[in-house]
Amino acid sequence: SLQISQRALAKLVGISTRDVCHIEQGKANPTLTTQVKLLSALGLTLAIEAK
Hints:
This protein is mostly helical. About 55% of the residues lie in helices and about 0% in strands. The protein has one domain (about 5-40).
């Protein structure tokens, strides 16, 4: 667990708490930009590799 609340994460990324909840539940399809912002806020990165 990364110990960050949905509210704090939403504020860091600039989306609503409801959006964070829906993303966590798999009920939303966030844009790549939003996904990258979420990962960055959590101290993570996204790597895309060609096959």
